Amino acid sequence: MNSLTTYLFIAAALFIIGVFGLLQRRSLIGMLIAIELMLNAASVNFMAFNRFLAPDPVIGQVYALFIMGFAAAETAIALSIIIALFRWIHSINIEQARDLRG
Amino acid sequence: MTVNAAWTHDANLLAAALSALTPFAAFALIMVFTRPHARVSAGISIAAVGVSLSSAVFLLVRNWSMQAPLQITGSWLISGDIHIPFGFLLDPLSLLMLTIVATISCLVQVYSLGYMAGDPGFSRYYAFQSLFAWAMLTLSISPTMIQLYIFWELVGLASYLLIGFWYEKFSASEAGKKAFVMTRLGDIAFFLGLLVVLIHFGNLNILDMNGPQAAARLSPALLTVSALLIFGGVMGKSAQFPLLTWLPDAMEGPTPVSALLHSATMVAAGVYMFARIFPFFSYSASAMTVFLSIGTITMLLSSTMAMVTRDIKQVWAYSTISQLGFMVMGLAAGGYAAGVFHLTTHAGFKALLFLCSGVFIHQYETNDMVVIGRQGGRGLRIPMACMTLAAAALSGLPPFSGFFSKEAIMGVLAGRHNPIWLAAGLLGAFLTAYYSFRLIFIILRPTQTEEVHAETHGGHGNGHHAAGLYWVMAWPLMILGAVTLVLGFFESSLVSFLVGPKAAAESVGGGHHAWLLYAAVGLALGGVALAWMEFGRKGSSQVGFVERLPALRALFANRWYLDHMYRHFLDYVIYGTFSNLFTRNDRRVIDGGIDGMCRAMIGSSRLLSFAQSGMLQYNLMVMFVALALVALGFYFLG
Q: CB-CB: which of B606, B615, B620 is closest to A22?
């Protein structure tokens, strides 16, 4: 069972949980966490492919590191947007931020 | 021989280019550099027109016995089969016109030194004068109708600028506009006529149009149509019958401008163009008959208008229209040399009449002849003598120049089968003599001379600071007076220069009838006598026979209600019908269409915006579904 497919299934499950969380959560923090899950699913995929298909160059690991850095940056920006929004509508519930509805 | 010929060619080219282009250089110089320096501007302009005059005289003398027309051209526009050259055409007619225009322009510009002295727009005035001279000189020596048309329009522009020279005055700017628009109306027809010729004949070269191939290549109907259309330009420019009312209004400009406009340039351009393509016009006999009747109507109508007005310049303006009609009659009756000769003599005496009137107007600051007479207008001896002389020439009294040219035209008219033209011509001669001498007698023999000291005072006041100016204005008068006196005696040499010695002998021998001479002079003298009876003799009432009939007087004074008719036409047909329709089309169809499109766009956007709930997750959902569908599509189809 210790094969590529196992890891791909785990990554897919993670990704689907992330998508579900993103679409279902109304809290912006929750949505942010869901996005993190999806990013981690991608990292798991990279690591698995690196390990089983092309072990010699460690590109997959480099990608995983990049994704972590990228996720940190993205979290910082997302949090600052959330804070700005909170100052404006005193809530981080996405249902409150509907000014652009037609 | 060839070397000699080449040299001739060059000298002619040089002189033609000099005469045509120096005024333009003067115009550019004045406009760009010397506008603040009035004296420098005037000097430049007069020097330039002096160069033109000497080149023109040089060309005239040099080519006096020319055998064939000389044409110097360079290609300007080539498009497919159409080839339009620019350059110079030197033949007797163009050389004569060149000399007339240069002479009159030069004299008028010298005269203007006095008349326009102290005017704030002095430099501008001379710049426009130079522009005018350039346009008219180049028009005279155009080898193609296209070049002629271009400079024709430039002449129109220059006269617009000069008529509306005192643009602060509302009536002056209106008059300029009227002149521009009315002549433009004729020019549209002119241009259409040129297009007809260009399309069917493929060439607008004047010599080719006058040659036999034009008649061979164009069908008679086309010839008539194009001749009539081109004549539209003459109608506008030379103030012929339907389009004649702009010319009396053009009196709003400075008097020297009127002199220039009426004698040698603007209005003469129309008759000159007629003479220029005279052979082309004569291919169509029916068109020539139309021209003849238009000329006749114009001549008689404007003579009647001149009989009632009290404005000294307007009398001469109407007489210009009537003399132009007379020239058109002469030309249309087939008298090429007679018409051109009358154009020449008329240029001299009409310029003289206007310049003399200008002296009176400058001195007494009024256009009203009765007031001028009462204030002692006859005290100004030189203008008075010159004006009487010119009026005699205008009336066709021997031995002044107008007598010879009028007799020539009468001779041509007598050669027509239908006697009505000759009768109209004789009636016109009678009326001309009557209204000219009406003016002369009113100024010369005023019924009462009130305000005598006002006159002497004014005379002194002006005399002190303007003695020099008076002489600047008097010299051109005397030169023109001398020309008016002697020009008539050069009839035979001028005619033989124009049409060649053989044809000249025929025209002089064939056209003259002794009784006609007596009849014309007798009628002119009758007109003078009637004027004397009513205005000149002691105790005369100074009321003309026309003025005793109020209805007739109102008709003449209102210019046969032509302006009213135009006004009605404009109000009801142009504004009421066409403008109205176009405005509605603009408002309803074009504006409405665009507004409707905008409204439809806004409405549909509003409908679409209901799909925007503002919920982030719905957008994300749509995004994921779309991506999933794309992925599935790639998986199964790709």
A: B620
Short-list B319, B308, B306, CA closest to B262: B319
Residue A102 lies in a domain: no
SS (H, E, C) B204-253: CEHHHHHCHHHHHHCCHHHHHHHHHHHHHHHHHHCCCHHHCCHHHHHHHC
For B490-493, the CB contacts below 8 A with 24+ separation are B491/B341, B491/B404, B491/B405, B491/B408
Rounded CA-CA distance B175/B161 in Å is 10
Tokens for B416? 């027509």
Contact B624 A99 (CB under 8 A): no
Looking at CA atoms only, how far is residue A97 from chain B in angstroms?
A: 8
- Asked, for residue A36, whether it belongs to a domain, the answer is yes
- pLDDT for B259 equals 85
ipTM score here?
A: 0.81
> What's the sign of the alpha-carbon dihedral B192, B198, B201, B207?
positive
- Output the CA–CA distances (angstroms, integers) from residue B590 to A33, B369, B544, B584, in the order listed: 57, 56, 59, 9
Element at B79 (helix H, strand E):
strand B70-79
B68/A contact by beta carbon, under 8 A:
no
SS3 label, residue B386: helix
Residue B568 has pLDDT above 70, yes or no: yes
Angle ∠(B626,B630,B633) on CA atoms, nearest 5: 135
Mean pLDDT is lowest, of B75-89, B160-174, B382-396, for B75-89
Contacts of B610 in chain A (CB under 8 A): 102
Residue with token string 């007798």: B522
Beta strands B82-90; B70-79: pairing state: antiparallel
Tell me the chain B residues in contact with residue A23 when contact means C-beta distances shorter than 8 Å: 617, 620-621, 624
> Which of these, B461, B472, B484, lies nearest to B390 by C-alpha position?
B484
Check the CA dihedral B243-B244-B245-B247 and report its sign: positive
Higher model confidence: residue B223 or residue A102?
B223
A66 within a domain of the structure (yes/no): yes
Task: Find the CATH number of the domain harbouring A30.
Answer: 1.10.287.3510
Entry pTM: 0.75
Report which of B112, B101, B92 is spatially closest to residue B38, judged by C-alpha positions: B112
Q: How far apart are CA B158 and CA B181, in angstroms?
A: 13
Q: Is B627 on the interface with A (CB under 8 A)?
A: no
Instruction: Find where tokens 């027509």 sit.
Output: B416
- Residues of chain A with C-beta less than 8 angstroms from the C-beta of B612: 100-102
Full domain range(s) for residue A82: 4-96
Phi-psi region of B612 (alpha: psi -120 to 50; beta: other; left: phi over 0): beta
The vertex-B34 CA angle with B28 and B40, nearest 5°, equals: 110
- Asked whether residue A101 is assigned to any structural domain, the reply reads no
Q: How confident is the model at residue B460 (pLDDT cuts 50, 70, 90)?
A: very low
Please tell me if residue B608 touches chain A, with a CB cutoff of 8 Å: yes
Nearest-CA distance from A87 to chain B in Å? 19
What's the token pair of residue B474?
């008097």
Of A24, A94, A102, the CB nearest to B616: A94
Is A101–B612 a contact, with Cβ atoms under 8 angstroms apart? yes
pLDDT tops 60 at residue A51:
yes
Number of cross-chain residue pairs from A and B with Cβ atoms under 8 Å apart? 33
Per the structure, the count of domains in chain A is 1
Of the candidates B608, B614, B617, which has its C-beta nearest A101's C-beta? Answer: B614
**Arithmetic mean of pLDDT, B505-532:** 73
Looking at the predicted structure, is the pLDDT value of residue B454 above 60? no
